[in-house]
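Supplementary notes (optional reading)

For those who missed the lab, this is the record we used. Protein: Xyloglucan endotransglucosylase/hydrolase. Length: 352 residues.
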Amino acid sequence: MELCNRKQWRSVGVLEAARPSQYLLRLRLVSLPLLAALLLLAGIADCTQEDTAGGRAKEQSTFRRYFWSTADADHYKLSEDGEVAELVLDRIAASGFASHTRYLFGRISIEMKLHPGDSAGTVTTFYTSSLSGKHDELDFEFLGNEFGKPYVLQTNVYAAGVGDREQRIKLWFDPTAGFHTYTIHWSKKSIIFMVDETPIRIYKNNEDLGVPYPGQQPMSVFASMWNGEDWATQSGAIKLNWDKSPFKASYRHYDVEGCEVPWYKGEVTPCISRKSDAFLKKATIQDLNDEQLIQLQWVTENMLVYDYCADVYRYPKPHPECRRNSGIQDLSPDLESIDALFYLDPSDTSSW
């Protein structure tokens, strides 16, 4: 039996809706089991509404048809056509949204435009989470900065409740000047984070080394904007300036192609069995080609500002997966000689 009689494999080209923000989750104001129950009820309600509304639902925008928001109208806003969502952070509240649907493996992407100017202390996110006790999670987290200084993009991976796999990079463009695409390719073999068409990180399945990997728990898709001044900017030295609020971030062109796991049933066998291999091979990037390897190495050499694998103070004993996941690989002389990248000078951040 399938949720709303939809196919288990589905491709969704719309942005998925607002839920309690990551800010609330981090403050433990909303327990994970309670939030999971709320999402389940929302999914059932969505099915009921679609069945009873009939043709009327088809006339609604993608946001209003498929998703709901727990934020008020001042902190979660939709464009007139319902295809662009805006999150707002001010003294009153944080904001966020999340999908009705859970996935176990697939390609998940969205376009984002970040708040310009002084954004120090703010955290703007796009991520997946299983909402379980020993949860899995894949993060894009944009850490705000003082006026004239660039955002830092942090990626992180949690598996079976174990995280602290942070990497941070500078971006080679101004993420406040326009929309850019941020994609997670999540397969049984690897997790690849991409910015536009450029891979910025690969996290391989290293279960053979005893390293947990997110491969058993379905995850919902989330976005949020919240106050992270205790750690986000220069390790918390620079605080959020509320006089500069409201802070805003825009999202559009959400796209998912993955294995759907209904809330009420939770059957993951079709997603983890070999029957899904052909679909995932088509839907996700699992290995990097030569050009992508060059791009990843360029990002690692020029834009990487923090890597947990190199943090000997936090981790005197190296993690076993670090060598396999490194963005610095032994490229052949032919590949090393290819100048396939045309990025801005990484030292030039004057534009933002």
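If you only remember one thing from this example: Confidence is low (pLDDT under 50) at residues 1-30, 44-58, 335-352.
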